[in-house]
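hey m, so remember when u said the tokens were messed up on ur end? i reran from scratch. heres the input so u can diff it against urs
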Amino acid sequence: MDLAVGRIVKSHGVRGEVVVDVRTDDPDARFAPDTVLRGRLPRGAGERTFTVVSAREHGDRLLLRLDGVVDRSGADDLRGVVLVVDADSVTSGDDPDEFYDHEIIGVPVRTVDGNNIGTLADVLHLPGGDTLVVAVGEGDERREVLVPFVADIVPTVSTALVEIDPPDGLLDL
């Protein structure tokens, strides 16, 4: 599984720098010189590997120089590339209230009353808010339930268990 750490927005200047919309809470580590990133090319055109040469702040974005990108034309060709790292190489640390999606996918989901519901299948980051996808049942009886990821409904989240307090009707067919 990949974890997006940034997206190349456009070129900057004539020497091959790119403007990056940062999508990580640790840009100093993710974009340090000599860091190797994978880039998902737009429109399903595959992947490419990039080595960071330098990084510097530019307003609320970041300017990167990438090895092999030496002019504006080369930088323009990278517009829309999503920079990713392998999710297994990233951990959220010791804080129990912080986690990455990949660390909680697959954990059991139960109600605050102790009833087992299923397993967490995915976390959707939608414009209206985050939503948990809970896989309920097995085989032909398997279905997915969408649970709003808000504190009133999801009071407990850890890398071992997700507890929900569903309002009436949320888990009904």
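this time it looks ok to me. The chain has a mean pLDDT of 88. if urs says something different then somethings off w ur setup not the seq
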